[in-house]
Amino acid sequence: MREKVAAAREDEKIRLEIIKSFEPLIKKCFKYYVKDLNYFNDAMQEGYLIVLMCIYNYDFNKEYPFEGYVKSSVIYGIKNFARKIKYNVSLDEPINEDEGCLYDVIESDLDVEGEFEHRDNIKNLKAALNKLSEKQRGVIDEIYFKNKNMREICKNRRCHYMTVEKLKERAIKVLREQLG
Asked: What gap in Å lies between CA 87 and CA 176, rounded to an integer?
């Protein structure tokens, strides 16, 4: 068998021959571990791929026979495949004739339309903030984003309270015009 495996690395016909010879093992593993006929073709393809990988990954220097290497690889590979599909549930899968599909029954607090609207509002706000002067933007940033009070801003900028108040009022007026 070792000579056949070595030749299979070069010849496609021999590779197919080896893969076909392990088809009963793949089907038996499917029967034991997967059981759902909807996944038969996928499991078979997974098994074929495992055998093909075994052909290329087999180490001829080891005493372990090729058949045993393929058998253990296929068993563990199909087990892993079965584990993956065990949690694979489609939301479009019908529950029963009365209730429709799983997607219709699941309650959600997520408001997709509201989320898009919120993101749109944020984009518009950013665009409107960019239209403010540097001083106006700075005052709005400190008041609304950094939660500073007017006295702190006046002290840091070393200016009169009314100057900051007027900057804030003009900035809010521009933002209202921009945002509608």
From this structure: 50
